Structures are given as C-alpha cells and as structure tokens.
C-alpha cells in the first residue's frame, strides 16, 4: 500500500469550485519530503487531513510540508451501557415530516450559524462558498443523504434540526451529524431537547451514539455532558493549499 493515499472529495470540489482532495491514509513513518513529492504530483488545489491529537510526529511533518491547522474536532459518545438513562420528558414538540419549503428554511439557518468550522477558518476559501457548503449539506441531508432528522417546532414552526445516520460507524454505533438552532430561539433549551430526543431515538437501533464539534464550541459540549456523553477523540484538521 502507498504511504500516502489521496482521494477526491466530490462534494467539496463542487461547492468550492476547486479540486478538493483529502488524505484517506498515511503511514506514520512518512517524512516531509515524501509528503511534498506526492502533493506536488497531485491534481488537487486543496487537500485536507485529520490527524489524531496524540500523533505529534505526523502533525510536525505535515505542517513542515505546508499543511496549516484550520480546525480541531472533538468527538463525544453516549454508551447506553455506561451512561445514565435518557429522559423522555421534553419542553418542545417535534415534527416528523417537513415540507420542501421548511427544508429550505432549515438550510438557511445552517448557512447563517456555522462560522467557526474548518471552511470558514481557511483564508484560501471564500466565505460565501463556506456558507453555501452548509446550506447545500442540509438540503442534501433532508433529501436522502441522511437517514433522518430530529426537528423541534415552536408554534408549529421548525426552529432547529439535527440530522442523523444509523449505524454508520459500526453495526452498533450511530451518529448525529449536523445540528443547528435558529438564533431567534437560542437560550430556550431547544438544543438540549433535540439532542436528548435524537439520542433516545437512535438508541432503538444502536448501543452507542456519537456527536462531534469544534473544540471551542463549549456550550454544546456542556449540553452533551449533561445528557451523559463523554469525550472519546480529538483530531486536528489541516489543509494544504497548492500555490500557483
């Protein structure tokens, strides 16, 4: 097997109008000159990589090759065998089926609230295209990319969402993928209710549920901890931009 395997990210390439690649595999023994040799021969304008926070040697070598840190992702997990039971009491209602018009409204929420992610943090990517990334991600999610979504409603109006995939990590581990709350309804416990509901629902299929966010998104991490989630992983996300 090659010591560094790059693959194309079709979705990112279409959104950002660049050849966007990602590191699918790297050998821990890979040296800086080997990284540069492969990158120079690749067709990608931007290449992303996720590196475990404990892999300091890889962090050093990839940064020396020109990769720069754009994000730090933390992953939490709820394990029903080692966590407190999930409450089934909620202060909001939830909607099972949303219209195409409501999907567009929820996608617009995503476009407006996501600002501290790896795409907005990268000076080599346009802000308006980073906004478009989340908008289109939500549209795709509600139209088949995800297995479903938890959608809280206030006075019959969808005000938040969390999309999910069932047993996508393993045959017993599901993921809540992307979540957002309308800024006009923040501070009302909607996010807590939504994650609580999503966890309870996914436990019908899985024994473990995962969620992830940026390391500096403290508020949502506190919510996860209250529900019973525990941190299991920290990864740095780096990009390499090939200069003309």
TrEMBL record:
A Pfam family reported for this protein in Swiss-Prot or TrEMBL: Acetyltransf_1
InterPro entries for this protein: Acyl_CoA_acyltransferase, GNAT_dom
Record EC number: 2.3.1.-
MF annotations from Gene Ontology: acyltransferase activity
Domain N-acetyltransferase: 93-244
Matching Gene3D superfamilies: 3.40.630.30
SUPFAM superfamilies per UniProt: Acyl-CoA N-acyltransferases (Nat)
Entry keywords, A to Z: Acyltransferase, Transferase
UniProt key word Acyltransferase: yes
Protein name: GNAT family N-acetyltransferase
Source lineage: Bacteria, Bacillati, Mycoplasmatota, Mollicutes, Acholeplasmatales
